[in-house]
Amino acid sequence: MSSAFRLEDYDVSPITGFLPEQEPARRLADSYYTPWLVLNEDLQALQLTGTLRARVEEEKGGHLPVLSIDRLIDERERRWAYTILGFLAHTYVWCDRQHVKTSLPAGIAVPWVQLAHALELQPVVSCASVVLWNWRKLDPQGPLDLTNVTSLQTFTGSTDETWFYLITAAVEAHAIPILRAIPAMLTAIDTQDTRAVLAFLHEMRGVLADLPALLNRMYEHCDPHMFYTKIHAFLTGWSNQAATGLPHGLLYKGVDDVGVDPNDHATLIARHRTHAGGSAAQSSIVQVLDIVLGIQHYPTGQPRDQRSIASQNDPDLRRGNYLVAMRAYMPGPHRRFLEDLGRQCHLRAFVQDQGAPEILATLRRTDTDEACLREDMLTTYNDCVGHVRRFRDAHIQMVTRYVVSPARKSGTATVTNSTALPTPYSHGERPRQNMTAAPVASHDPAWTPKATPPVDSIPSTPTEKSAQVSPHLPPTAGDEFFLSVRTRTIPTSQTSIPSSSASTVAPSESEDWPVSPPLDSPVSRFSLSGLRRAAATWISAKASPTFETDSFTLPARNASTTTTINAIAASTFMGAMTPQSENRPSSRRASEGGETAVSDPSSPVNSLLVVADQPQQQQAVKSPAVAVMPRTGRQELLGSGGTSAIKFLKQVRDETTEGLLH
Ligand code: HEM
């Protein structure tokens, strides 16, 4: 029986849903925590003055002590501490994009990891920290809606960022009547109470009908340019961030380096964490809608037949579901809510059974009222699915406007859907989603959307089509490339050496490219040296690349630059990886700048992924596996100028449409 399903068991309130019933804490009672609060208070000022890092880094004369979390008095305080440490951490890492920090000081890392553990979250900024636990009412006696709330903290201090968080919170809050009605709906299904299920669906339809308009209120106060250039940069996590300077992720000092010899780079690199950053994809409510309606989502980027096979049989094929992966970034109780609801909710099956054509045909002859009721249930169910689809359509348009279009304007859009970059939308396990319905409480007027202009009438919204950029624009002088190298092992049978130095085969999106092995391992050092040496030769004497640990920038010089780089990567790769080839000795020595490295034929690493920043062009090259990729601001969000996000979102939208019952 599902009747035992209780919202309060999952820290879900019938009044405020996934938002806490009590306003989030704004201070921490014990003055012991003053060092955190002071930094939090001055977060934007410290950014502007460029002094934030100096304030927390001992080596720069600052000091942020490692504080114990034991003096936080309750869950509210723990949440607030987690939130402000998140703002502090992401500001610390990203405030200077030219010199991104690759590790977090212990004063931030240690308590943040402990708090994340206690709250069953990841130590990274999440929707919970910036939305659920980051608001206050302006008038304490007033309503909890967009007329009376603001955010407690932002990275930028802008109204745009506040609005971004508040609209996300408003979407959460708007669907509270659905949450409230779920337990009774589950009971109604158990007891085969068709009328109660229908009442639930009517209520749900009423709520969902307003959702796209509410989402579109984003346009009122959140400027796309501001979002693209400033806000998302801080929300970025450390997964898939080779191009932004974190090829291995982030090292949490005082946590992950404890007991490791500081010179043991291999171990230290292996200890780096890779967490996705904050995204409204971590909002639980939209997943609730999918679960309630029984909308199935599949691993991203696989052919349709593969995906449906994946849904039934092979657990390995089920990997790659980004939406499920995002649950790890939701508070533990909310995650469990989704999981348990997925197990207990059979709404779709109920509607389907009750509305089966043969049953309806019989009922139309024997019991017209019952037939009408069931037809109404079927129609209302489909209306609900249709509204979720409309919400996703509006959201895709929004992502086009806030990500794809600014990326294109700023010249960072690179295109083709055949991106070789493994998208972030390919993690985790596919959820088991079934369904269920119920008597419904009256619709909460709080958070109700105001009338907004239709999104089509908003000027300068690009169509998705127009946002596509030609994949073959030549680079121009002054373009910069940023290369980083990742390696992996692929079966020897697939590593045919190309005859030309630059073939163009995109590795499939689902391919997994783990972070590089340590830079001081023979193969990668050889490869990097080879890249450097070859770059100097190939790009000509005028180029003066500046080399960093595992990346370097090259001024683009002519239209063949990308091909040249592919060739460099390919030849270096071949030089390093094919010691048996006819021109090469079995163990090849390369010398550069006094440094000698030896390729290791026994190394399991046999492939390179080269990530390149190049504004207008993306090419993927396998040689056997060398890919030239674009650099973007935020890989999770902006992979290929947002086009991989759009591709993912369209798949999710189309899967929603597949939920319609016929
Ligand atoms: C400026 C506004 C927004 C932008 C640019 C944006 C961007 C994105 C992007 C790029 C993704 C792909 C996944 C990822 O990168 O994490 C995504 C997913 C998602 N976003 Fe947004 N988003 C915006 C507003 C919102 C709002 C207000 C909500 C409301 C809850 C929302 C809910 C979702 C959901 C649920 C997903 C997962 C995909 C799905 O279920 O359809 N987004 N968003």
UniProtKB/TrEMBL annotation:
Compositional bias ranges of the Low complexity kind: 492-508
GO terms classed as biological process: 'de novo' NAD+ biosynthetic process from L-tryptophan; L-tryptophan catabolic process to kynurenine
Entry binding sites for heme b: 395
Keyword Iron set for record: yes
EC number in record: 1.13.11.52
Family: Belongs to the indoleamine 2,3-dioxygenase family.
Official protein name in the record: Tryptophan 2,3- dioxygenase
The species this protein was found in: Tieghemiomyces parasiticus
